């Protein structure tokens, strides 16, 4: 299986299912609600703010 294909697979972390393996880490200065909603809508499985 190509490495990038694995990004689309769900991930189970302690019984919590994350829909894919794409995470968005907190970034200094870019933390508004609209940015987090866009990241989630466009595929980030987990968004941390």
Entry keywords:
two-stranded parallel ribbon, 2 helices, 27% helix, 20% strand, globular
Secondary-structure blueprint of this entry?
Elements: H1 3-6, E1 11-13, E2 16-18, E3 23-24, H2 33-41, E4 46-47
Parallel strand pairs: 3-4
Antiparallel strand pairs: 1-2
Helical content stands at: 25-40%
| Global Rg | 12 Å
Number of helices: 2
Distance between the termini: 32 Å
Question: Could you say how many structural domains there are in total?
Answer: 1
Main sheet strand line-up: 1-2
What would the principal axes of the Cα set say about the shape? globular
Main pleated-sheet profile: 2 strands, antiparallel
Number of strands: 4
Structural class: alpha+beta
Q: Kindly report the average pLDDT value.
A: 81
Q: What is the H/E order?
A: HEEEHE
**DSSP strand (E) fraction?**
15-25%
Unreliable sequence segments: none
Q: What can you see in these coordinates?
A:
The protein is α+β, with helices and mostly antiparallel strands and 49 residues long. The chain has one domain. 27% of the residues lie in helices and 20% in strands. It has helices at residues 3-6, 33-41, and strands at residues 11-13, 16-18, 23-24, 46-47. It has a two-stranded antiparallel ribbon with strand order 1-2. A two-stranded parallel sheet has the order 3-4. The mean pLDDT is 81.
């Amino acid at each position: 299986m190509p490495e990038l294909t694995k990004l689309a697979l769900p991930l189970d972390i302690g019984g919590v299912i994350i829909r894919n393996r794409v995470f968005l880490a907190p970034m200094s200065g870019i933390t508004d609600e609209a940015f987090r909603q866009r990241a989630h809508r466009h595929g980030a499985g987990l968004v941390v703010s």
